[in-house]
Specification:
Elements lengths: L2 H14 L3 H12 L4 H11 L4 H21 L1 H14 L5 H25 L2 H10 L4 H30 L3
Organism: Natronobacterium texcoconense
Pfam families: Sm_multidrug_ex
Protein name: Putative small multi-drug export protein
């Protein structure tokens, strides 16, 4: 999947909406694996949405989708196992997340996962490796929070320096 058309679609969808609907879209896009906060926060702030509100809404969308994954992970794991039986190799994202887990454990996976593998894949790897659901939820929340702050600050700074919005 090419990233450029995805970025254009996310950007144009948020830009075409107005008011509350823009923030609702930020929430929804932040909850979708692959898009997540890494994509939606810079786009939304670049389009002129309030950085603090964008960060809060994106954080909520991303965290709630991870919590849903934690609650339903056994079903997701069974689905992935059936899917993996059809494939000979795990995905690159899964392999990156697994390497993070092997090297740094849950804290490293939670802090590096959102950028390197995606928070949903990182959470699933931690759960499949046997971590307790509450511990995974707490660490993933911490990782998402840290990256939300970094992305909001960097995006707001970039927009001000470039004079985009």
């Amino acid at each position: 999947m090419s990233l450029v058309p995805l970025l254009v679609d996310v950007s144009s969808t948020i830009e075409e909406a107005t008011g509350f609907l823009q923030y609702l879209l930020v929430f929804v896009f932040a909850a979708i694996p692959v898009i997540e906060i890494l994509v939606v926060i810079p786009i939304a702030i670049g389009l002129g949405l309030d950085p603090v509100l964008t960060g809060a809404v994106a954080f909520a969308g991303n965290v709630l989708s991870v919590y849903a994954l934690v609650v339903f992970y056994r079903r997701v794991a069974n689905w992935l196992q059936r899917r993996r039986d059809d494939e000979s190799e795990p995905s690159d994202r899964y392999a990156r997340a697994r390497r993070l887990w092997d090297r740094y454990g849950l804290p490293g996976l939670a802090l590096g996962g959102p950028v390197l593998a995606g928070v949903h894949v990182a959470a699933l790897v931690a759960l499949l490796a046997g971590s307790r659901s509450r511990t995974v939820a707490a660490w993933m929340t911490t990782g998402i929070f840290v990256w939300t702050i970094v992305l909001v600050a960097a995006s707001a700074y970039g927009v001000s320096v470039l004079g985009i919005a």
